[in-house]
TrEMBL record:
This is alpha-1,2-Mannosidase. Keywords: Calcium, Disulfide bond, Glycosidase, Hydrolase, Metal-binding, Signal. One of its GO terms (cellular component) is membrane. It comes from Coemansia biformis. The keyword Metal-binding applies.
Length: 551
């Protein structure tokens, strides 16, 4: 899962101890081609047919028996870790949204429908925990989505965790109860899209169907929260043969294409494919000039490429927009640090800020997959470079765990360093970056990218790195009854004997972190990247139904 955060707030934080440098300029050219016609005509049949012949996964048939033995042993270790976490959840919070591990009690954070239960269904299935899966299935059958638990529903989260979880459970098991539940819940969410531009409200009163913004009385939202429905809704339209869902989700593409992308304030140029994250859905306008591939923007970009793949390469507009975005990311959105690593940053108009949150770690994985699909070596090498930088944030730490957010110092921009506090400078000297937010909250994004890179290249170094991270989680996050976050990744619990706890165990830990860890060590044809596409919450959706443009 990627997250959203107010870009304006983040910008203030950056400016407080920030630095400035001008980004290069580009003319505002736009070339979006090959529009998908929902009535079935593909403008580009030859291209689509060529793409359909392609496979992306590495051929693992020559794996040595020693590598295989170690890999399978590790898969079993991950599975034991999962069972440990699951038994805590079962004992103290079964059917609840989350387990409060420290206080051994349930926590209601997502309308009380059982976020962890639903989010983890596919993990249970893929790990081969059949009895657990069937027990969970019977709990899910009893969920009443009409009872909102006295909370407004967060539309984006409800889609990625619940709708995605139910869909994947249906895909894997073939049990139609899950599909019926997914339809029931999505139909309850549909009133959120009842807005002038057809983009969803952030929050929804499930009982009345009245939408609202997270800031009371406002109409603000962000790219990720309006642009992370296309995969789930596309698959739902396929499975129900009802185009309504897909069309609602695709509105965001139409809306963005009709608007200018990132523009420098007072300037006369744009950065194609990069959109400010903050959007007023009633006014139909961007409300800041900050564009970011981390929290607030992330899964909007992610879904451009993945929905294209899921649609059997039919949704050209999504790919073209992705292609445009990646070129701008490569040109304006990344910078080399003093340690020689290529990090993504944060753009505000013409300014680049050397700041990366851990959500940006999804980029190498999705980019590597898309590069293999379109056959682009330069995009693939960009993905490898970004992964080296992202991994350094984990690998440089004694915990092997990465901070929630870092700042880095650009090579050739001395002020990046000079303007830092002496404490921050000392961190740059030691690690190559500043730990802006030094905690680790069991998030999956870097592990996710290691998974893609391992499956696409067969290089065991990616698996070994994931194993090191798992060891770090074991040392620092495992406590009685489950796993929690750790407050400072630069201090390892095995050195101090103290667990510096962040009391948080979100459903994505079971749904994503464990799933990607397991899949890195499982036999490589388990959920092959040639047959499945993972949503932003790591829910695999099947590519088995060829799409001809109609539902
Ligand atoms: C939903 O709207 C109804 C009617 O206005 C109200 O009674 C209820 O409290 C609202 N639910 C939430 C969670 O705010
Ligand atoms: C398609 O789904 C929408 C949204 O749930 C619903 O209103 C409509 O009746 C459905 N159409 C058909 C033909 O089932
Ligand atoms: C607009 O762009 C043109 C061509 O790049 C440049 O010559 C001109 O100075 C720019 N004007 C402003 C106001 O930036
Ligand atoms: C991406 O855009 C570039 C530049 O316009 C173009 O050369 C390339 O063919 C595009 N790639 C795909 C897969 O559309």
């Amino acid at each position: 899962m990627k997250m959203q955060l107010a870009a304006a707030g983040l910008l203030c934080l950056l400016l407080a101890n920030g630095t400035h440098a001008a980004a290069a300029r580009s003319p505002g050219s736009r070339a979006i081609s090959g529009l998908y016609d929902r009535h079935g005509a593909s403008a580009n049949a030859a291209r689509v047919n060529a793409l359909r012949q392609r496979t992306v996964q590495h051929d693992f048939s020559d794996e040595s028996s020693e590598d295989k033995r170690i890999r399978r042993q590790r898969a079993e270790a991950i599975k034991s870790g999962f069972l440990y976490a699951w038994s805590g959840y079962k004992q103290y919070a079964y059917g609840a949204d989350e387990l409060d591990v420290v206080n051994k009690r349930p926590r209601t954070t997502r309308n009380g429908w059982g976020a962890t239960l639903v989010d983890a269904l596919d993990t249970l299935w893929i790990l081969g925990l059949e009895d657990e899966f069937h027990e969970a299935r019977n709990m899910v059958a009893k969920i009443d989505f009409h009872n909102d638990g006295g909370q407004l529903a967060k539309v984006f989260e409800t889609n990625i965790r619940y709708v995605g979880g139910l869909l994947a459970a249906h895909e894997l098991s073939g049990d139609r109860m899950f599909l019926q539940k997914a339809v029931e819940l999505t139909d309850l969410l549909m009133p959120a899209f009842n807005t002038p531009l057809g983009l969803p409200w952030q929050m929804l009163n499930i009982t009345t169907g009245v939408g609202s913004s997270e800031s009371p009385g406002g109409s603000s939202t962000n790219l990720a929260e309006i642009g992370t429905f296309q995969m789930e809704f596309f698959r739902l339209s396929q499975l129900t043969r009802n185009a309504t869902y897909h069309e609602a989700a695709q509105n965001v593409i139409t809306t963005m294409l009709a608007r200018n992308p990132l523009q420098a304030p007072g300037g006369n140029y744009t950065i194609p494919g990069m959109y400010p994250t903050d959007f007023d859905m009633l006014a139909g306008k961007f409300t800041s000039s900050a564009a970011y591939w981390g929290g607030g923007g992330d899964s909007f970009y992610e879904y451009l490429a993945k929905t294209w793949y899921l649609s059997d390469f039919m949704l050209h507009r999504n790919l073209d927009l992705w292609n445009e975005s990646i070129q701008s990311l490569a040109k304006y959105g990344v910078a080399t640090s003093t340690s020689g690593l290529l990090f993504p940053g944060f753009l505000d108009g013409s300014k680049f800020y050397p700041y990366a949150d851990t959500f940006t770690n999804f980029i190498p994985g999705t980019l590597a997959l898309a590069s293999k699909l379109v056959g682009s070596d330069s995009y693939f090498s960009l993905a490898e470079d970004l992964l080296e930088a992202g991994y350094s944030v984990f690998g440089e730490m004694p915990t092997s765990l990465g901070a929630e957010a870092i700042r880095f110092v650009r090579k050739n921009v001395p002020t990046d360093y000079q303007l830092l506090s002496s404490t921050a400078q000392a961190q740059v000297d030691k690690y190559g970056f500043v730990l802006s937010r030094p905690y680790y909250m069991l998030r999956p994004e870097l592990i996710e990218s290691l998974f893609y890179m391992y499956r696409l290249t067969g290089k065991t170094i990616y698996a070994d790195r994931a194993w090191a991270i798992w060891q770090g989680i074991q040392r620092n996050c495992r406590i009685a009854n489950g796993y929690v976050g750790t407050a400072d990744v630069s201090v390892d619990a095995s050195d101090t004997g103290i667990h510096n706890i962040v009391d948080s165990t979100e459903s994505f830990f079971y749904a994503e972190t464990f799933l990607y860890l397991y899949l890195i060590f499982a036999d490589q044809d388990t959920i092959s990247l040639d047959d499945w596409v993972f949503t932003t919450e790591a829910h695999p959706l099947s590519r088995a139904n060829a799409f001809d443009g109609t539902f």
